[in-house]
Specification:
The structure is a single chain. With about 190 residues, the protein is α+β, with helices and mostly antiparallel strands. It has two domains: about 55 residues, no CATH class; about 120 residues. It has three helices and six strands; from the N terminus they run ααββββββα. A six-stranded antiparallel beta sheet has the order 1-2-6-5-4-3, covered by helices on one side. Strand 5 and strand 6 form a beta hairpin. The longest helix has 20 residues. It is globular. The two termini are about 20 Å apart. The mean pLDDT is about 85.
Length: about 190
């Protein structure tokens, strides 16, 4: 699900109106999926809140030009996804260097962007000083990054998804792979 940052010329005057409309669509889909089980009464309000939270927290969290929420289950929080396109200042530099050293790297091929790298990262986070219950567990962030150098003149293309729920990140890999394969570079770059 895209998080548009500019609503000029769109069907929505602002992020709040966008969040309300998207929540209506996601709740309707969840109702059709859940059928007889129903959906939680507060689902719409939670979805609106999570979308608004995305607008409040995601821009600036990670360098990106496009922001998305991967949201296969509206009853659970979404996985943030960032996409960025950068000019290549030094063609000798590896396109995989933006997140630092990866725990796992493998080749990833996209029909549109060619050969790239898919990287998996595990990033320990500083502990929350006010959380006594988490004293025995170090906070951890999992991330998957896709990196290409493509086009002429070349640009670096990067897609990154991250969450502190590693099982959700692992479960999202097939959809993230498919989304990464759809990325293209247009003439406007």
């Amino acid at each position: 699900m895209p998080l548009p940052m500019d609503f000029t010329g769109s069907d929505w005057p602002d992020a709040s109106a966008y969040a309300e409309d998207v929540a209506d669509v996601l709740v309707a889909k969840q109702q059709a999926y859940a059928a007889d089980d129903g959906v939680p009464e507060d689902l719409r309000a939670r979805i609106v809140g999570q979308i608004r939270d995305g607008y409040d927290k995601l821009p600036g969290l990670f360098p990106a030009h496009l922001h998305y929420l991967y949201w296969p289950e509206p009853t659970r929080p979404p996985v943030p996804v960032f996409v960025g396109f950068w000019p290549v200042p030094d063609p000798e530099r590896s396109p995989a260097g933006r997140l630092g050293r990866a725990d796992v790297e493998e080749e990833f091929v996209s029909e549109h962007l060619g050969r790239g790298i898919r990287s998996l990262y595990g990033v320990p986070l500083p502990p929350d000083d006010g959380d006594d219950d988490a004293a025995d567990v170090a906070p951890f962030l999992g991330a998957v990054g896709y990196h290409w150098r493509a086009g002429e003149p070349p640009i670096d293309v990067q897609l990154v998804a991250m969450t502190n729920e590693l099982g959700r990140l692992y479960g999202a890999l097939p959809a993230l792979d498919a989304f990464a394969c759809e990325l293209t570079i247009d003439d406007d770059r």
